[in-house]
Specification:
This protein has helices spanning 3-19, 38-44, 120-132, 147-154, 156-171, 197-213, 240-256, and strands spanning 24-27, 33-36, 58-66, 69-75, 81-89, 92-97, 118-119, 137-144, 179-182, 187-193, 227-233, 262-264. The protein is an alpha+beta fold. The protein folds into 2 domains: 3-97, Beta-Lactamase; 118-264, Alpha-Beta Plaits (2-Layer Sandwich), CATH 3.30.70. The strands form 2 sheets. The protein has a 6-stranded antiparallel beta sheet with strand order 2-1-6-5-4-3. Strands 7-9-10-8-11-12 form a 6-stranded mixed beta sheet, with helices on both faces. Helix 4 (147-154) crosses helix 5 (156-171).
Length: 265
């Protein structure tokens, strides 16, 4: 083709790709995202000035070959898994979505089978994306007090019901854009978006009061329980690991104080 034809082709192709309902992304030789289609930006919540690396999107870096390209699996912020065809040339990478993403359909979210909340992996995936977007947030780590005693004295069926009740109490008191999930046997993580420390403390105080006053076991009507909460507000130099570490340290302070309280760092 002649140069003027090439120029015309690119001028027409660029807006067509940009606005097509296609997950499309280009990464340079440093694995930095340098171009993406509107559909990709919406699906992965990529903001205009975001500086993102390829590793922020990949679920598994073990590809499956299909000729000149490879297939990798990525996870959207809402938990939906999609396959991407990855083609490499001179150190650059082109991603093309192999699966359609229908925004009107309910997202496929990974959940904990007992409580119906997100899993630890899903919460941490969401947290990583929010950190990359520089979203103000607070992270809470919650632990049911004396849970082993509940299992030992009342049985594991009662313990399971306490876990389900605890999850319901929190889910009814947080916003749709927040993220809550089970991270261990009786431990949970809660991401509160776009809040300052004072606002987060108010939300968590209501959760403490609600849990403390509940009697969730039908066969043990006098039974009640409480929880400990560690809270950390995101700081400018925080990583996912440092924010989690502060929340865990705050949780330890709450436990040392006897539980049924909030500690923050």
């Amino acid at each position: 083709m002649k140069n003027d034809v090439n120029g015309l082709l690119w001028r027409m192709l660029n807006p067509l790709l940009q606005h097509a309902p296609l997950l499309l992304a280009v990464f340079d030789e440093t694995d930095r995202l340098v171009y993406c289609s509107d559909a990709f930006a919406r699906a992965f919540r990529v903001t205009e000035n975001a500086s993102l690396q390829r590793s922020a999107f990949t679920r598994s870096d073990v590809p499956h070959g299909i000729g000149a390209s490879e297939v990798i699996e990525v996870v959207l912020p809402n938990g939906q898994c999609v396959s991407m065809s990855e083609t490499q040339a001179q150190g650059w990478r082109l991603w093309v979505g192999m699966d359609s993403v229908h925004e009107a359909e309910p997202p496929v979210v990974e959940t904990d089978p007992l409580t119906g909340t997100c899993t630890r992996r899903q919460v941490l995936f969401r947290l990583e994306h929010l950190m990359l977007e520089h979203t103000p947030l607070c992270l809470a780590m919650l632990d049911i007090d004396h849970f082993k005693r509940i299992n030992d004295e009342l049985g594991h069926t009662a313990g399971d019901e306490v876990l389900r009740h605890f999850s319901r109490e929190i889910l009814t008191r947080i916003r749709r854009d927040d993220c809550f999930g089970r991270s261990g046997a009786e431990q949970f993580l809660l991401i509160l978006r776009e809040v300052d420390l004072q606002s987060a403390m108010k939300v968590l105080a209501r959760i403490l009061a609600s849990v403390r006053s509940a009697h969730p076991l039908r066969h043990h009507p006098r039974f009640s329980y409480s929880c400990s909460i560690g809270l950390a507000k995101r700081q400018g130099n925080d990583t996912v690991e440092s924010l989690l570490a502060r929340a865990e340290q705050a949780l330890a302070l709450s436990r040392q104080g006897g539980g049924d309280r909030i500690a923050h760092l």
